Amino acid sequence: MLKIWGRLSSLNVQKVMLAVRELALSHELVEVGGKFGGLDTPEYGKLNPNRRVPVIDDGGFVLWESNAIVRYLAARYGSGTLWPTDPCVRGDADRWMDWQTTEWQPAMVPAFLQLIRTPEGERNQAVIDKSVKQINACAQLLDAALQERDYVSGAQFTMGDVALVCSTHRWLGLPIARPATPALSAWYRRVMMRPATAGVLTLPLS
User: Which residues form the GST N-terminal domain (predicted)?
Assistant: First the structure.
């Protein structure tokens, strides 16, 4: 059985869990990180020397890094679904996964830490403002890409949507002003209607 180490409050763990649920894979979630602790043990260090979540063990194959895990699971268990058979569609999904992890997620981290993890009286408004400007610009870029598309790579729900919807969910959960993004909002509603999101993408953020 697939074994997963992580906590559902982690955006990166949410990606993996959403992929697992989309693929209907039998699995066990071991809660570690955050309030659960456990990342500093020798045993966990052998699984992931970075001591971060998530990590999976699939029949003895241990893998860390969330997007690598999602790609692996999609390729092994989701050919034709999360893993598009058309190389162009797959490349497009791949591109958006990389964009999520190199552009949108890093832009969001400062605002998330300030607004969700920092007491109100200790927050740095300049840091928040800069982060919000960046993440809203990313949202508008994604909104433009979703014009006249059901999903980020076209008509098919793929691994690219898995990564992006987790960041979108976090963006929408932040107590900030957001620009109008009608295509992004319609896509988000469409994805959130999928049964796999239940219990994975929930509010409030923590």
Answer: 1-81
